[in-house]
Design brief:
The protein is an alpha/beta fold. The protein folds into three domains: 5-146, N-utilizing Substance Protein B Homolog, Chain A; 177-233, Alpha-Beta Plaits; 236-435, Rossmann fold (3-Layer(aba) Sandwich), CATH 3.40.50. Helices cover 46% and strands 16% of the residues. The chain contains 17 helices and 13 strands. Strand 5, helix 13 (262-270) and strand 6 (275-280) form a beta-alpha-beta unit. It is globular and about 75 Å long.
Length: 437
């Protein structure tokens, strides 16, 4: 791709570059350099929306492109292929004005040094524009309308035979923007006035008492009082960890695998007099936690260490409570991070299950008798959640699952599962494990 200033600041070219970062380099879309380099806020918003949309509907868009083309595009012309996906996404889901979706997208082929493709892109998009109803009906008959990789679709159908269609539909919708109010710092009445004055409508949540949803969604730099530490971005499902752990003054608590620190901060905002140890294995992620805590006016003992290498960081004093927010497939937050569908694989889930088991076994030894461990994932796959806990219980007769009296989620003998979109929340799993005294 030609690297000139005009190209770098074109939102559609930036979206293609972002797709390359995700699909070719296995980066998270939130870390895209192409998107962060766009200086104009409107262009940035357009590029981000296009990249997220294509990743959300990737296989369905690829199927449509294949049907609309008279012959397949050569594999080496991946930029032209992705340009078609951008155009189809605009016409299908974004309701972009047709002249922009067709003409401006086609002209991007010239910026990509592919002048031969201008007419091709134009013709394909105009055909879809004319025959959209016909092709979308064929799409439904093909089974590709779900826009999930086959392995993941099959596992969701197996785990949730009655709810799978609702899960898929939720995964393919954009998530709302939820914030958490910092009770240590915020004047809630003034905060709500400031949000309304800035043009936001707000909604509370039935189960997460510190959660507030704002509409329209906006970058944090445009949200009143965010930089002053009155608010943090966090889904209500993640905020429920604090309620299950229920921190009390003087308790010695471990927050393992803590980055980026949302649950860490929530614990401290709720009870600043706990003795909190915060772990993550990557030093740069610990630095991120420290920055977040500083913005919120909070402090904790943060340590960069592998939680399973207990001898490298533990002082020998057992914990009253442990929060294990375990590494996972993140299949519960696909609606926020659609690239997860294409960055994960069946083998990766098997690998992360071994990591989860290792963390559970290592940290259980650090919990005092009568203590509480909350196991959490943002996954909806049973092999990471209820099956993981079931296997742990077989190996640890001193562990008992406590069933909290809550109105959210689907209860099992091994924990509570929240499905994506349920009560406007992300997908999340929680198990509360008590160690026999």
């Amino acid at each position: 791709m030609q690297k000139n200033k005009k190209n770098m600041q074109n939102p559609r070219i930036a979206a293609i570059q972002a797709l390359s970062e995700v699909l070719d380099e296995n980066k998270n879309l939130g870390d895209s350099q192409a998107l962060s380099s766009l200086r104009d806020s409107r262009d940035n918003a357009l590029a981000r929306n296009l990249a997220y949309g294509v990743l959300r509907w990737k296989t369905a868009l690829e199927w449509l492109a294949g049907e609309l083309l008279s012959k397949p595009i050569k594999k080496r012309e991946v930029e032209v292929q992705r340009l078609l996906l951008l155009g189809l996404q605009q016409l299908w889901h974004d309701q972009t004005a047709s002249h922009a979706a067709v003409n401006e997208t086609a002209e991007c082929a010239r910026l990509l040094n592919k002048p031969w493709a201008v007419g091709l892109v134009n013709a394909v998009l105009r055909r879809f524009q004319r025959e959209q109803g016909f092709f979308l009906k064929k799409l439904e008959q093909s089974g590709k309308q779900y826009a999930h990789p086959d392995w993941l679709l099959k596992e969701i159908q197996k785990d949730w035979p009655e709810q799978w269609q609702d899960i898929i539909e939720a995964n393919n919708r954009q998530a709302p923007l939820w914030l958490r109010i910092n009770r240590q710092r915020a004047n809630e009445e003034k905060l709500r006035v400031d949000l309304r004055s800035a043009g936001f409508t707000t909604n509370d949540h039935a189960f997460a008492r510190d959660a507030i949803c704002i509409n329209p969604a906006a970058p944090v730099a445009k949200i009143p009082r965010f930089e002053e530490g009155w608010l943090s971005v966090q889904d209500p499902a993640a905020q429920l960890a604090r309620d299950l752990l229920d921190p009390k003054p003087g308790e010695r608590i471990l927050d393992a695998c803590a980055a980026p620190g949302g649950k860490t901060a929530h614990l401290l905002e709720s009870c600043k007099d706990i003795k909190l140890t915060v772990l993550d294995r990557q030093p740069q992620r610990i630095e991120q936690i420290n920055q977040n805590l500083h913005r919120l006016g909070l402090k904790a003992d943060t340590v960069a260490a592998d939680a399973t290498a207990v001898e490298t960081w533990w002082d020998g004093e057992k914990f009253h409570k442990i929060l294990l927010d375990a590494p996972c497939s993140a299949t519960g937050v696909i609606r926020r991070h659609p690239e997860i569908k294409w960055l994960r694989s069946n083998d990766q889930v098997d690998s992360v299950r071994q990591i989860q088991a290792g963390l559970l076994n290592a940290l259980w030894t650090l919990l005092e008798p009568g203590g509480l461990l909350v196991y959490a994932t943002c996954s909806i796959l049973k092999r990471e959640n209820s099956q993981q806990v079931q296997e742990f219980l077989k190996q640890h007769p001193d562990a008992v699952v406590e069933v909290p009296d809550v109105e959210w989620g689907t209860a099992s003998p091994y924990g509570h599962q929240i499905l994506p979109g349920e009560a406007r929340m992300d997908g999340f799993f929680y198990a509360v494990l008590r160690k026999s005294a």
